[in-house]
């Protein structure tokens, strides 16, 4: 899986924990073709997280030569956030489809850019507003994602 080269040590730990929770991770699965603006998906029924690396590359205007220049911070950020976001949905599934935090606190902490992205996510069938709020908040909190996977899924 190509996307792993863009991850931090903490994100690689998330991948290990996802696997221990009996989930699979796929890259560039057919669902990624649904829309070029989506970078990740969670499929509860199949216990699957999908990372759409090709979509992330297009969104960030990534070019392969950037690997040599180490100028790939934007792509790294998008992929890390997608992994953490989808892992949060996995955590919610482990918690009987309930959020793990306080929704009012979560709503206060979400910035305007993430609220814009949240509106796009709500177009996906089966989306739940509170679960999306929480997933967007957790995108920047890898340690909390790790802790929650251990608490709710293992």
Structure description:
The chain has 154 residues and is mainly alpha-helical. It has one domain (2-149). Helix content is 55%, strand content 8%. It is built from eight helices and three strands; from the N terminus they run αβββααααααα. The chain has helices at residues 9-20, 53-59, 65-69, 73-94, 103-109, 112-121, 129-138, 142-152, and strands at residues 24-27, 40-43, 48-51. Strands 1-3-2 form a three-stranded mixed β-sheet, with helices on one face. The longest helix is centred in the middle third of the chain and has 22 residues, at 73-94. The two termini are 24 Å apart.
Please specify the SSE layout and strand pairing.
Blueprint: H1 9-20, E1 24-27, E2 40-43, E3 48-51, H2 53-59, H3 65-69, H4 73-94, H5 103-109, H6 112-121, H7 129-138, H8 142-152
Parallel strand pairs: 1-3
Antiparallel strand pairs: 2-3
Give a quick precis of the structure:
By secondary structure, the chain is mostly helical. Helices cover 55% and strands 8% of the residues.
Helical residues, percent: 40-55%
Number of domains: 1
Shape: globular
How far do the termini sit from each other?
24 Å
Enumerate how many helices there are, as a single number.
Answer: 8
Poorly predicted runs of 5 or more residues = none
Structural class: mainly alpha
Give the SSE string.
Answer: HEEEHHHHHHH
Beta content: 5-15%
Mean pLDDT: 90
